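Backbone shapes recur. Consider a single case.
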Amino acid sequence: MEEEIARRVGDPRGTRFVCRSGSPIDLDDVALMNVEEARSVIVLAEGPDADASVIKALLALSKRGLAEGVGKAAVAQVRDRSFLQPARIASGGKAAPILVDEIIPRVVAQACR
């Protein structure tokens, strides 16, 4: 994953990407991420129960220091509008849930303008 990011991003200008594998809802796997020192965290919605998995991941991240370490530099991908508020609550208000199906078309339209 890190190689793919490097290929697509090019020169990261001092930004270091750290990718981790494992279950984002397993506290032992989340402990490997060093959330306390991260400047930003991105939670992606994947799988059949993607939004529920995002909520679980945000709860695990909150347990491991999301609220103290990262602040508003945490972003969570959400597919269903009804999961926006639960995502905010699960992160203690420290993650910005983004409704992907609405924001991506807007970004593309703005880029085209």
Summary: Residues 50-63 form the longest helix (14 residues). The chain has six helices and three strands. The beta strands are 41-43, 74-78, 95-99.
